[in-house]
């Protein structure tokens, strides 16, 4: 069986082309899959795709897939000399969560590529202006990609005041408790910090959220619910619980639940693969003391989820 | 003397510079091979790279007796014949599919069909089905196209959409060789069997764990072959109505990525992501009648028009052909 090729999902706005250019430098052996602006600009090796979103359940937003990405990524890797890595470039209008779901769930892709990390870019100058003006920081799609990113690259951070940079950091930490924030970026950023990091499948380090969420985020911004327990978890029971949570909450008006089921984290002394790893496989005495399940979504009933989790895994 | 069991005999093998994206047999049994880098070869002859420069090749087929058509990722379609080659500008955008119906070459770009014929070029036909994903020919002048929003039946002779059916999520389509029904696979893991002329009286075949991308209609015994994940299913169809339960077969360890149905015998070839190639007899799906484990993923499969030969191309650029003699039992 072929070894899956690592895939980096790069998302962002005006600063994204610079990031993609670094990730897809000829020396990296990478091929870019994306719109003409990204894939077409590479030295003929890119695969141009145009967004074609379908849903596995008609009318359901939770199981949307990017049909074009399935075909485009498959074409990119089904070559006599396959690329060493794949970079999927999505601009600010593309839903990164749908792309992640597609890459993880589609059977054509799951045996060919392996999601390495989700990168998201932020332009510090734009954000500082919006913070000062009190306007929207980003669209819902933009906030979503920041909420699930493994690396958040803050471009032009040297062009804003420390106070503005602090406020930006506060917003990002309110949105994302596991991603690494890198500033300054993108010029001068070490690509080795961004690729081959296996961020998606390893056990993330879950930080503590700010004591108070950023006042610049509305009530409908994505939130992260971290459920912990001081015992090993049964992956099947966690799967079942997540299914119940999604069924119970995903249909609520305004509720947009995207459980990071692939990242359900049974903490151990070393990074673990997602939910397929059972803490019980370790010998007694080498099992972790803490297990963590993380949910990211909007309008989540935080207290109810914590209570449900505790009851389901008593 | 016809053997009782299907016999498969290796015939020829040749190499191309890149993964094989398309194989097609002409009426006089010449095999066209198209590689991902745009090179083209016929019957293992020297690859021609005169059409490179349009990006990756994604499709290729014979057009009539002596011409071929090549489709490229950037939407360009190149017609090649004895008089040379010429590029046909598509409607723009990535090429979704290319098909020779027997009388018309049809290319799909975004939401439009581009019909390429011997006469003056026709304007692209927006079939209003959303982004087009697949199409199949029922007759030389009548085809079915599946888009993101609808399935449409198109009369290419009249250049119009004759019937429209709301069907969201369709990603694959196959046409009955007798022109009586079509089968449409969708993202939800269902296959919709619709009678031509009575599309509202269709039947949904459910239970697939994954989107149904591999789909084909069988001439004899009449039916629909579908694959999702590692399982092959065959639904017999009687009077346009599929049976209640399919026959199922598992012979792959990895997801099936290609299927090819013999045009003359009850035989189906399947290939998976790991390089396993199986040949099944629809008379008995207990196990494959023949199997080969190849070093690389099979990327193209094609039966000759007389059903006597099977061609397979893989990710390494190797093309192999086998002579197939159907058995009387399996």
Would you kindly provide a written description of the structure presented here, covering whatever features stand out?
The complex is a heterodimer of chains A (314) and B (330). Chain A is built from ten helices and twelve strands. With 314 residues, chain A is α/β, with parallel strands linked by helices. In chain A, strand 4 and strand 5 form a beta hairpin. In chain B, strands 21, 22, 23, 24 and 25 form a five-stranded antiparallel sheet that branches. In chain B, strands 1-32-31-30 form a four-stranded antiparallel sheet, with no helix packed on it. Chain B is built from no helices and 32 strands. In chain B, 0% of the residues lie in helices and 55% in strands. With 330 residues, chain B is mainly β. In chain B, strand 11 (112-116) and strand 12 (125-126) form a beta hairpin. Chain B has strands at 7-15, 20-25, 31-35, 40-42, 57-63, 67-72, 77-81, 84-88, 95-100, 105-109, 112-116, 125-126, 132-139, 142-147, 150-155, 160-166, 170-175, 181-186, 191-195, 198-205, 214-218, 223-228, 231-238, 241-242, 247-250, 256-261, 267-272, 276-281, 290-293, 298-303, 309-314, 318-325. The radius of gyration of chain B is 19 Å and the shape is globular. Chain A binds chain B through residues 1-2, 44, 47-50, 52-59, 65, 67-68, 75, 78-80, 82, 106-108, 111-112, and chain B through 17-19, 36, 55-56, 58, 73-74, 93-94, 110, 131, 133, 148, 168-169, 171, 187-189, 210-211, 213, 228-229, 254-255, 257, 273-274, 297, 299, 315-317.
